[in-house]
Amino acid sequence: MIKALFSAPIDKWDKYEAPLHAAFALKGLQVDLSPDHAAEDVDYVIYSPHGPVSDFSSFTKAKAVLSLWAGVEKIVTNPTLTQPLCRMVDAGLEEGMIEWVAGHVLRYHLGMDAHIVNPDHHWVPAVPPLARRRKVTLLGLGALGAACAKTLASLRFDVSGWSRRPKDIAGITCFSGDDGLKEALERAEILVLLLPLTTETENLMNAERLGWLPKGAFLLNPGRGALVDDEALISALDTGHLAGATLDVFREEPLPQDHAFWPHPKVTVTPHIASETRAETAAMVVAENIRRSEAGEPLLYLVDRTAGY
Ligand code: NDP
Questions:
Q1: Residue 224 annotated among the catalytic residues of the structure
Q2: Residues in domain D-isomer specific 2-hydroxyacid dehydrogenase NAD-binding (predicted)?
């Protein structure tokens, strides 16, 4: 019998218990998910950063730590973690992110705010351009960034993206590396951040790089708060260089009540709900990785500890 520990908040257990048992059965695995296993007997840790386990040193037999989160910045530098770490790539998470990104891109593209909040009943028949005339750039072309880029391209937006290593994605203008960043930003009328938070990406969108965006650009950040220099962003909004920002993630969450983002007229705050791992699909990912590990096959979505994601 395989022993796994579900290290996540109790409300997650309510969501995951049945899907995990169903997924293990589908994969032909016998997995005991008792919360009472001694740490040294556990074969796999199913991990959330909000769960009880943060010291992995006593999990001496564990063959992998399986994160329920796509972003692993809270665990990747943990010095007690010697076990292989897999991040979450989940079809449900991807679908949710596509919807959030497409919704907010369309909001800015169509200028919807002017019609939703129009207290003086102005009749201004300004027709928005077609999507094909709107340049959208995604920083990050991984599981989520590439999926969002493809959906935006299917809506006919003029989509480009930027990644660490060169990529070739049909219908997307791809940039990479330090050299590609300026070009990717200079064309971004709407910019979407879907990068992981690493030492390389922290504060990537500082005053200088925000300045590379075209005047009147919009910024969407469903990636991680610390990708953006908060003060530089507020300053770019105040000077009118940027026209608006929708932020889902923050350096401190919940976003403190006295933070300047809350009252800012050009900022929309969403409370880290762009997407989330969905239990039914994620349980299958966890089960597949346990199956692979038990069969001696390579794990899926293994984190590169050196790169930090
Ligand atoms: P992936 O690891 O699949 O993709 C990351 C992308 O970022 C890759 O294209 C990668 O390049 C690129 N990248 C990483 N470092 C650099 C760098 N230094 N320079 C240029 N490009 C870089 O991650 P996901 O797409 O699954 O997730 C992205 C992030 O979204 C997560 O890390 C998390 O922070 C956030 N997230 C937010 C959620 C929310 O609800 N707000 C929900 C889920 C995730 P390359 O392809 O070359 O490796």
A1: yes
A2: 132-274
